[in-house]
Amino acid sequence: MSRQSTAEEIVAVCSRLYDRGLIAGQDGNVSVRLPSGHILVTPTGLSKVDVTPETIVELTPSGKQVTGGRGASSEVGMHLRIYRERPDVRAIVHAHPPVATAFGVVGRDFMDAVLPEVIFHLGRVPLVPFALPGTPALGDAMAPYLADHDAFLLASHGATTVGPTLQLAHQRMESLEHAARILHAAMQLGPVNRIRAEDVEALRRAREAARAGWDADAARTEVDEEDE
Ligand code: 13P
Questions:
Q1: Residue 70: how many CB atoms within 10 A of its CB?
Q2: In terms of residue numbers, what domain contains 79?
C-alpha cells in the first residue's frame, strides 16, 4: 500500500464511521502509522465525511507536520502517545459511537464477560477516567490501560480503538457500538448473564492465537508498502 492508498483508506473509514452514525458534526479522527514511522491523520475541524485524501495530514513520529494546509486533528496527542507506547499498533480510530459513549457517560465499562465477540475481537474494554479532549491529559489518562487493551471507552467523551491494521481498528469500533446496543437491549429485558469462566478462558486463548495472525497480516501489508 502506498501513502496515497493509505490516505484513501482513511477517507473510506471516515465515510463508514459517518454512514453508521458513529460520528456526527466534526467528531472523530483516524490515523495510520506508515512503515517510515510517519503518521497520516485526519485534519481538524472538518466533518469527517468531507475529508479527502488531499486534506490528510502527515506528521513525523514526534508530531511535526510535514504537509501544508489544515492542521492535524486536535486529538493528535492521544494518537502519538498510543503509537509511542504500542509499537504493534499501526492504526487508531477515535469516534463518538452513541450507545457505547452513553455507557461511558454513566460510568459503565465493558469488563464483564457477556458477549463472545467482545472477548474475542475487543478483549476487555476499560473505562478511561475523564480528561479534557484535545489536551495531553487525555493521553495521560489512557496511559495505564494502553499496554493491555485494544479498545477504550473514554468517560463522558467517546471511544478509541487500535489495531495492527486500519481495517481491524475500524472493525473494533463498529463491534464496540454493536455490542453496546445489544447490552443496552439486554439490560432492559432482565439481568445480564455472564459467560462461564472456562468459556471465557477459551475465548481469550483463541484471541491470543489469532493475534499472531493479525500481526503477520499487518507485517505483510508493510512489506507491500515498502515495495512500492
Ligand atoms: P478533530 O476534528 O480535531 O479531530 O476533533 C474531533 C474530536 O472528536 C475531538 O475529540
A1: 16
A2: 3-227
